[in-house]
Specification:
The protein has a five-stranded parallel sheet, sandwiched between helices. 37% of the residues lie in helices and 15% in strands.
């Protein structure tokens, strides 16, 4: 069994999301000592509301998955120069109440887009958001995949070798990032 478990969170709800395909490709390119487990219930998380009498089950599941993982990989598309609302909502839930399971949790940020930005503005905004939870984010290599529709086939399989090589470097760096922040 792999020694490092990474939790993959995709900020898109689309069934054929390129960002979900990117997470799967990262899982496929990780070194053998690591595995990626995807959190697939982002769409089940209700709007953040501290007036609710109890924490929703999907929120409890998200927090538990974050706690159990050695690190988190967030794949975000870019909507209006920022992250999708569903991702921000999940992070709001995961950060409250204190202590947040994100506190001190190593995070890797990746993303892709059909345009030329590769989700860069969303990724920079996500880094700012993660300052609140004191989540150390991996700085290099940056994984911002432009023209992603040309790098994945219709079934969401990565076909571009230069992207695959970048994801391998990301996986090695993410494992080292988790080791630096273990405990």
């Amino acid at each position: 069994m792999p020694a490092i478990t990474l939790l993959g969170i995709c900020g898109s709800l689309r069934k054929k999301s390129l960002n979900a395909a990117l997470l799967r490709a990262i899982g496929e390119t990780l070194p053998p000592e690591a595995r990626l487990v995807e959190f697939s219930a982002l769409g089940e998380i209700p709007l953040f509301n501290t007036d609710l009498p109890e924490e929703p089950a999907a929120v409890t599941a998200l927090k538990s998955a974050i706690r159990e993982a050695d690190g988190v990989v967030i794949s975000t598309p870019e909507y209006n120069y920022s992250i999708p609302g569903v991702l921000k909502n999940a992070l709001d839930w995961a950060s409250r109440p204190a202590p947040s399971p994100l506190r001190g949790k190593p995070v890797g940020i990746v993303g892709c887009a059909q345009g030329m930005s590769g989700s860069m503005r969303a990724q920079y905004h996500l880094r700012q958001i993660l300052v609140y939870s004191d989540s150390p984010t991996l700085n290099q290599p940056e994984v911002m995949i432009p023209q992603a529709h040309e790098r994945f086939d219709q079934d969401g399989r990565l076909t571009d070798e230069s992207t695959r090589a970048l994801l391998r470097r990301f996986g090695v760096a993410m494992i080292a990032h988790c080791a630096r922040h273990a405990g």
